[in-house]
Amino acid sequence: MPAKRIIPCLDVKDGKTVKGVRFEDIRDVGDPVEMGKRYSQAGADELVYLDITASHEKRQSLPDLVTNIAEHLDIPFTVGGGVRNIKDAEVLLEAGADKISVNSAAVRSPELIDQVAKHFGSQFITLAIDALEVGGGWQVYINGGRIGAGKELFSWAREGQERGCGEILFTSMGHDGARRGYALEALDEVSRRLSIPVIASGGAGVMDHFAGLFRYTGVDAALAASVFHYGQITLPELKHYLNGQGLEVRI
Amino acid sequence: MKVAIIRYNAGNIRSVDFALKRLGVRAAITDDHQKISQADRVIFPGVGEAKSTMAYLRARGLDRLITSLEQPVLGVCLGMQLMCRWSEERNTACLDIIPSSVLHFKGGMKVPHMGWSRISDLKSPLFEGIPEGAYVYFVHSYYLPQNPYTIAHAHHGMPFSAAVENGRFYAVQFHPEKSGPIGAQILKNFLSL
């Protein structure tokens, strides 16, 4: 088994990173390339760049930014946000992205997963799923959590795997931003039901949440944003903490 | 030094070029036989599917060109698998530079093997200055079992070949271009062989 991966997520709008990062000597906190390099040097195993630019302005800015990131970053990175069709995927591949993540577009046309996997390989496509526990079941939402997708988490994740995605990124909407820990039971169930790697997202607040995630579930990676951006947890201290707990991480 | 990166229908060839650029080396991404033959070093990278890639290489005579190269050649990921005899991926006959077969991961572990794993038993100048147990980045669903050409191994449910060497041909299953400073050092070592 590979080491458990720690993945900071950066929101990008109009070519700039949106949330501040508390690196002491950083000049331009809005520079996605500079921030990616800092995270990489601090020990991030991968990065996710989520483009939240309005879709009609996205076509110009994103490929250039992706190329700029690919030129400077020496760890893998995923680009998500607004990939709607195979052409969008191809543009990002050619720009230098290692992986793309799809969310709403895959719910609307699930065959997008098959197409991307067939043309560019399973390793290139991550299926991102936002889900909320409603009345004892887990329901999938799209458009940033605003619209019910009419799908159930576990069966949709399974379908994604069967259609050829290489990885699942599952965000528990009820845990996201609450900083009270990850959705352990649901994450473990997704992980056990699938043979592809699962990335957990939503709920990290303290280092023990990461330890609990890796100890009590079968997930392969943890994604977090604000705890890293605002400096509550730094990557070196997190990795040493996890290592001290007997969990395998890359140091 | 002239470095050629073989251009073919595989994904993410540019990332190898970018990694070389970070080392201050300008490479040519090309499928031109003469340019490839005349380069001091050749890199055969790639992410993709074995069968269609071998068909593409054969249609352009790149299969014979690669096997006839006399300078140091580095296969990366799919490039390494295609340098073997045969791949279980759609029952594909490959270049047979490493006379061993590539198999699909089976047995309950997560597939693809995706992420950072340790490499050990390092036995090649390719790993000069690389500590035993260093982490490198892997993404693959097929693997080359350990064999007499293995110069490094990694584990994913079982030990497998993380790198092989046969004469002037070197190959790595992981992605040195995405493996941080360790990967950069391995690329640098290849260029100074």
Give a verbal description of the structure:
The complex is a heterodimer of chains A (251) and B (193). Chain A has one domain: Alpha-Beta Barrel (TIM Barrel), CATH 3.20.20. Chain A is globular, with a radius of gyration of 17 Å. In chain A, helix 1 packs across helix 2 (55-72) and helix 2 (55-72) runs parallel beside helix 3 (86-95). Chain A is of the alpha/beta class and 251 residues long. Chain A has helices at 32-42, 55-72, 86-95, 104-108, 111-120, 153-163, 184-193, 207-216, 226-229, 235-244, and strands spanning 5-13, 16-17, 47-51, 77-80, 99-102, 125-134, 137-142, 147-152, 167-172, 198-201, 221-224. Chain B is α/β, with parallel strands linked by helices and 193 residues long. In chain B, the strands form three sheets. Chain B has a seven-stranded mixed sheet with strand order 2-1-3-4-13-12-11. A four-stranded mixed sheet of chain B has the order 6-5-7-10. In chain B, strands 8-9 form a two-stranded antiparallel ribbon. Classes of the chains: A alpha/beta (251), B alpha/beta (193). The interface between A and B is medium-sized, with 29 and 37 residues.
